């Protein structure tokens, strides 16, 4: 019988894929890696030592977490003046129209990241008796004071910036803000549909974390409220000055009218001048009283509008001592180092087993 020729197998044909075969290969590699126990055991010991050392030398940072709500009314319908007029009668146009100003507080998030407000906060006193600012304390905690002092051969104090400008301190403070502080400050809005805002400050000092968080939030909210209400507040002050001036003139005119009326009791019927003087005084009094009443009404409307347009910032959560920190206990460093060393050692063993 004639045998059929055997055709050579194409070099492009791959062997069929088998899950069992792949698992067997993986198991074989793991067994071979475990057999190199001296290798991964050495890596585990080294990792344990490094983990314990790192747990002692790792810088400790403290987290100051603040949650707050910003709510402001929006001018709807006929504007803030109409809202103020309606508010005097107990009617809230904003609620009737369903308007809400909660989302408008997003501007506060941008203010919290402002370099100018951060700078202002850092230049506030940490210890006024020792002439130490928050920036000085921050530089001390991070070792910048010693580093800068060795380079420029003189101590650096940011307290001088409270009195004026200094090129050296200005440049160092700017660099410190850009490279460090802005990375340690996180502001966010956890839920886009709600008006809650969250600010986290992580620094190496517990006290400075709380002070920086509180003062930065106060600076941002004060600036925001002042900007939102500046026009209305100016109008209230202007009307208040007019009202005070008119009240003073009205009081003087009231005394003048009373004196003129008293003279009428002793007048000579042949002369009409006292009667004319009394009539003029009475007329001026009524006129000034009418003007004063209108100014007073506009003043009250402006005050009501100012109250309605002033945003409200309410703290929900604020930092409380002791702060949450990232301290590692020695056994945590030991455990983490052991796991990391074992993984690296076994991975190296698998690589060597493939060769």
From TrEMBL:
Keywords: Cell membrane, Membrane, Transmembrane, Transmembrane helix. The chain crosses the membrane at residues 37-57, 328-352. The keyword Lyase does not apply. One of its GO terms (molecular function) is protein tyrosine kinase activity. Residues 25-117 form the Polysaccharide chain length determinant N-terminal domain. The keyword Nucleotide-binding does not apply. It holds the Pfam family Wzz. Signal peptide: none annotated. It is found in: Cell membrane. It is a multi-pass membrane protein. GO terms for cellular component: plasma membrane. PANTHER family: FERRIC ENTEROBACTIN TRANSPORT PROTEIN FEPE, TYROSINE-PROTEIN KINASE. This is Subunit length determinant protein.
């Amino acid at each position: 019988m004639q045998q059929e020729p055997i055709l050579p197998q194409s070099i492009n044909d791959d062997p069929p894929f088998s899950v069992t075969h792949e698992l067997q290969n993986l198991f074989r590699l793991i067994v071979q890696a475990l057999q190199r126990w001296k290798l991964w055991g050495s890596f585990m010991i080294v990792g344990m030592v490094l983990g314990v050392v790192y747990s002692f030398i790792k810088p400790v940072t403290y987290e100051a977490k603040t949650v707050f709500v910003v709510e402001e009314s929006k001018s709807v319908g006929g504007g803030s003046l109409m809202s103020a007029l309606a508010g005097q009668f107990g009617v809230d146009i904003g609620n009737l129209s369903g308007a809400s100003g909660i989302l408008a507080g997003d501007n506060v998030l941008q203010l919290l990241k402002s370099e100018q407000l951060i700078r202002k906060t850092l230049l506030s006193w940490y210890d006024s008796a020792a002439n130490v600012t928050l920036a000085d304390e921050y530089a001390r905690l991070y070792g910048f004071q010693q580093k800068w002092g060795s380079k420029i051969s003189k101590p650096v104090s940011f307290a001088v910036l409270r009195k004026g400008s200094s090129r050296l301190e200005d440049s160092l403070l700017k660099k410190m803000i850009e490279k460090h502080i802005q990375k340690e400050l996180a502001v966010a809005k956890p839920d886009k549909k709600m008006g809650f805002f969250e600010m986290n400050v992580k620094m190496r000092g517990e006290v400075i974390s709380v002070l920086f968080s509180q003062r930065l939030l106060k600076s941002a909210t004060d600036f925001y409220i002042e900007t939102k209400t500046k026009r209305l507040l100016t109008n209230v002050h202007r009307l208040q000055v007019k009202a005070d001036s008119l009240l003073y003139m009205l009081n003087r005119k009231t005394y003048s009218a009373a004196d003129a009326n008293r003279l009428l009791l002793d007048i000579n019927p042949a002369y009409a001048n006292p009667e004319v003087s009394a009539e003029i005084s009475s007329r001026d009094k009524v006129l000034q009283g009418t003007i004063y009443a209108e100014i007073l009404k506009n003043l009250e409307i402006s005050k009501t509008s100012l109250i309605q347009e002033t945003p409200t910032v309410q703290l929900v959560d604020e930092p409380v001592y002791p702060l949450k920190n990232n301290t590692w206990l020695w056994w945590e460093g030991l455990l983490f180092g052991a796991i990391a060393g074992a993984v690296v050692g076994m991975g190296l063993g698998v690589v060597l087993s493939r060769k």
